[in-house]
Specification:
Blueprint lengths: L1 H22 L8 H4 L7 H11 L3 E5 L2 H15 L4 E3 L2 H9 L4 E2 L10 E4 L3 E3 L4 E5 L14 E7 L3 E2 L2 H12 L7 E4 L4 E2 L7 E2 L6 E7 L2
Parallel strand pairs: 1-12, 2-3, 2-4, 4-7, 5-8, 7-12
Antiparallel strand pairs: 5-6, 6-9, 10-11
Length: 212
């Protein structure tokens, strides 16, 4: 009986604490415009500006053909021996456009650049939403010194909450084990407050964005 009494007392204290806490919660509705900065002048430009402000690069392409032409020039200019790719659709396009690539796991550790797709792009923060559901998995988002992302403007949303809702709608009850955002190349300023890129992941982060 004493144990039941003690348990009841604890539950009553928890309930009372919750009631007091709720009394301090402001239930007034929040104007979304007061929380989120506006998207200016448009989603595409905002995304590009925000990504470049955090040391990322966005290459805007007219269509898919232009995207792979610009990607081929990028690979040649950087003198990359190959792009490591696990996505079968991207690999097919790389082969068609004669862009060197490898999916051989024996080449994984030596890769200089990896290429992936993504789930969505967030204009307001210049972020790229990725998940473990893609064929690229998790490693290619963090391991390559140069991370290249291929995307389409149809994947562009204004704010992060829209991207998360879109992921829920896409996967329903089968959400990926990991959904995360990439906001520019890896960076830290822990050492003497000096910004260092590539400390915990890719040093370069490039998004090739197709308008059509």
């Amino acid at each position: 009986m004493q144990n039941n009494s003690s348990r009841q007392e604890i539950l009553e204290r928890i309930a009372a604490a919750g009631t007091r806490r709720l009394a301090f919660v402001d239930s007034a509705p929040v104007d979304a415009e007061s929380v989120y900065k506006p998207i200016l002048p448009d989603d595409i430009t905002c995304f590009m500006n925000e990504l470049e402000a955090i040391n990322g690069v966005c290459v805007l392409c007219d269509d898919e053909a232009d995207l792979y032409a610009k990607l081929k020039s990028f690979v040649a200019n950087k003198e990359l021996p190959y792009l490591f790719c696990r996505d079968t659709h991207i690999a097919q396009q790389l082969e068609l456009n004669k862009i060197p690539f490898s999916f051989d796991e024996a080449h994984f550790d030596a890769m200089q650049a990896g290429i992936t797709g993504c789930e969505f792009l967030v204009a307001r923060t210049g972020s790229v939403l990725v998940s473990s559901a893609s064929q690229s998995g998790r490693q290619l988002n963090v391991f390559p010194p140069v991370h290249i992302v291929l995307a389409h403007v149809s994947q562009l949303v204004s704010y992060l909450d829209e991207a998360l809702v879109a992921v829920q709608q896409k996967y329903g009850d089968h959400l990926p084990s990991i959904v995360s955002t990439i906001t520019g190349p890896s960076r830290t300023a822990d050492i003497e407050k000096t910004l260092v890129l590539g400390a915990h992941g890719p040093k370069e982060f490039i998004v090739f964005l197709s308008k059509m």
